[in-house]
Amino acid sequence: MGIVTLERDIASVRESCRIVRKVLSEIAQFVNPGVTTAAINALGKDIIRAEGAVPSFLNYNGYPEAICISINREVVHGIPSAKRIIEEGDIVGIDVGAYKNGYHGDAADTLLIGEVSSEAKRLVEVTYQARELGIAAAIQGNRISDIGFAVQKHVEANGFSVVRQLVGHGIGRKLHEKPQVPNYGKAGNGIKLRNGLLLAIEPMVNAGAAEVRVLLDGWTVVTDDGSLSAHAENTIMVNGNTPEILTA
Ligand code: MF3
Ligand code: CO
Q1: What CA–CA distance (Å, rounded) separates 160 from 193?
Q2: 7-242 sits in which CATH class?
């Protein structure tokens, strides 16, 4: 369980999360039609290293690159490639992790490339809203399932579906710690949230059905029905009634 109470540890996790957000901002400026996902990965890796951090995902369970880039029907864990070129109208999930001074930070955004369809735009908006609502439920005394309850309610009210085969997670000295943070479920179940608990809250939202599968590369998760998918993630620390969004 990632729980920080010492000021020194909190400062470390804030620093890793600051680097993650810096990478996401710089990538958002850089991504345009014609750019390869390998070039995006290289930019992200360079910034992480220039900040004295290590890319959390590189070599994690054999993952081969620093950043995950998941386009359109790809949900998460897309592997950057020199052959994959960003196009006008794409929605591009960028997922970044950085490790420094003993702590990880983890966050993702989904970028709209130029003019995207109205459905794609609405999907991405609802996904960001779901991340906000999930975070707003991460208050002291609530339970872990209150987060997924809030996410699912909003997503389904908008006619989309929440991925169930993958979940958010505790984070801290390791990238993935207890507890799991599902994006669905009933309210009022699971562990009670305590101040200092670090969570990666990360709704994955499909325009069509919830089912996903993994491509033959062993990593890329795609929607089963080929519909669009969006992903938004922040690392937060439970802090009374106002969660601190560390990767804001
Ligand atoms: N944000 C993702 C997660 O929390 C990224 C992990 S990619 C991996 O699971 F390569 F590190 F597995
Ligand atoms: Co994560």
Answers
A1: 28
A2: alpha beta
Q: Residue 126: what residue type?
A: V
Q: What value does the mean pLDDT take over residues 31-46?
A: 98
CA-CA distance, 196 to 207, in Å (whole number)? 34
Is the Cβ–Cβ distance between 236 and 198 less than 8 Å?
A: yes
Tokens for 90? 């794409």
Q: Which atom of ligand 1 is nearest to the CA of 95?
A: 1
What confidence tier does 5 reach under pLDDT thresholds 50, 70, 90? confident
* Burial class, 167, CB count within 10 angstroms (exposed 0-12 / middle 13-18 / buried 19+): middle
For the chain, the domains span 7-242
Terminal CA-to-CA distance of the chain, rounded, Å?
22
Residue 146 to residue 166: CA distance in whole angstroms: 17
Which has the closest alpha carbon to 154: 135, 181, 168?
Answer: 135
To test ligand 1's pocket by mutation, which of 45, 96, 106 has the most ligand atoms within 8 angstroms of CB? 106
Helix 145-157 to helix 118-136 angle, to the nearest 10 degrees? 150
pTM above 0.90, yes or no: yes
